[in-house]
Amino acid sequence: MAKRNIVITGGAGFIGSHVVRLFVNKYPEYNIINLDKLTYAGNLANLKDVEDKPNYKFVKMDICDFEAFYQLMQDEQIDGIIHLAAESHVDRSIKDPFTFARTNVMGTLSLLQAAKLYWESLPEGYDGKRFYHISTDEVYGALTMNHPEGIEPPFKTVASSEGHKAYGDDFFYETTKYNPHSPYSAAKASSDHFVRAYHDTYGMPTIVTNCSNNYGPYQFPEKLIPLFINNIRNRKPLPVYGKGENVRDWLYVEDHARAIDLIFHEGKIAETYNIGGFNEWKNIDLIKVMIKTVDRILGNPEGHSLDLITYVTDRLGHDARYAIDSTKLQKELGWEPSLQFEEGIEKTVRWYLDNQEWMDNITSGDYEKYYEEMYKGR
Ligand code: NAD
Ligand code: TYD
């Protein structure tokens, strides 16, 4: 395997930390640079097990800092960028859209322009280079819920839950027109367009992938699954938006990371791939599975925590249903999820319950001190 110098942005976040771990362990000959600003969502404790590996380096940097990133490209002779850094929480984007435009749009543009200038200055130009942008299915908008009771789905994968249902006839395909609704998805859509524009205009070798909702270890506990597991453990209310009828399509985070590895190495330049496991869940049904699983593991009687369910005012512009069709990725590159949802949720619940210190450090804010202690003087 050839030596490569790869920057992974957002590597201290949820998905990024799984991608960094996979690359550092799988490719000892690569030079893996985790570039992260360490916002509230960035946590170096997510990567304790790889921080001393010789092929891993952490760089604290804002993706909007064009000069610093251009310098890094030159110093490290970067030939691959896997871009995950973003503001990622829809509720925050509703309250503070400017931060989302700054990081997700201007930050992505800044990386693209620095990569363009550096790669175009080399004798071989764009040969062997890759700018891989990680995006979301939320850019496609919302699908209709024309089968609220659920129908037999046209597709299944290993990830599909037992008794898996589809809640509408339509799915997001790579050809689905962009129609983002939240400030988060609008900013992600804009960044996707910029990435494609750099291919179409300058010939930069880019790839974009759009993935469904991820779940698993190290997710920041403002998102549904870790928040609710932690609240059940602490007997705190579970704030269900609206009627809990919205549908999300859930994929185990390590299966996303494996797809990213495959697509980075074997995906076709300028292509888009949708990533998802055909695993639709109504929020309320998923919440009941989490309650059942946590109660069983903690030794509570069945149904013990159901009283924590608290219906609250709906999220503004709350998208009704997301469901990804990932047939292209499966057929063209042979990707398959590895974990069925029931196994994935069991693993995830156990991970959060077994790693209470990780969770408590976040909820108490201690993780911000970790960087200072680990990295001062380096
Ligand atoms: P996250 O919020 O857990 O992590 C984001 C990371 O980016 C953090 O480490 C944060 O410190 C860093 N960051 C934020 N602003 C930065 C800046 N200006 N400069 C440098 N670093 C910055 O997010 P996540 O859930 O891991 O999502 C990662 C990517 O995957 C995002 O681009 C997101 O849009 C996309 N995505 C997420 C999901 C999901 O379900 N979580 C699904 C599909 C796609
Ligand atoms: P979230 O994890 O924020 O992901 P996204 O909005 O990107 O899909 O939310 C998943 C679903 O759970 C979404 O339909 C909103 C809902 N939700 C709640 O009902 N209560 C909550 O406290 C949160 C955070 C989410």
Describe this structure in words.
This protein is of the alpha/beta class. The protein has one domain: NAD(P)-binding Rossmann-like Domain (Rossmann fold). 40% of the residues lie in helices and 15% in strands. It is built from twelve helices and twelve strands. The strands form three sheets. It has a seven-stranded parallel β-sheet, sandwiched between helices. A three-stranded mixed β-sheet has the order 7-9-11. The longest helix has 24 residues, at 97-120. The radius of gyration is 20 Å and the shape is globular. Bound molecules: nicotinamide-adenine-dinucleotide and thymidine-5'-diphosphate (TYD). Nicotinamide-adenine-dinucleotide binds at residues 9-10, 12-16, 36-39, 41-42, 62-64, 84-88, 103, 107, 134-136, 188, 211, 213-214, 220. Nicotinamide-adenine-dinucleotide (NAD) binds at residues 9-10, 12-16, 36-39, 41-42, 62-64, 84-88, 103, 107, 134-136, 188, 211, 213-214, 220.
Produce a short descriptive summary.
The chain has 378 residues and is an alpha/beta fold. It is built from 12 helices and 12 strands.
Question: How do the helices and strands line up, and which of them pair or pack?
Answer:
Blueprint: E1 5-9, H1 14-26, E2 31-36, E3 56-60, H2 66-76, E4 80-83, H3 90-95, H4 97-120, E5 130-136, H5 183-202, E6 206-211, E7 213-215, H6 224-233, E8 238-241, E9 247-252, H7 253-266, E10 272-275, E11 280-282, H8 283-298, E12 309-312, H9 327-333, H10 341-354, H11 356-364, H12 367-375
Parallel strand pairs: 1-2, 1-4, 2-3, 4-5, 5-6, 6-10, 7-9, 8-12
Antiparallel strand pairs: 9-11
The protein binds nicotinamide-adenine-dinucleotide and thymidine-5'-diphosphate (TYD).
Thymidine-5'-diphosphate is lined by residues 90, 213, 223-224, 227, 239-241, 246, 248, 283, 315.
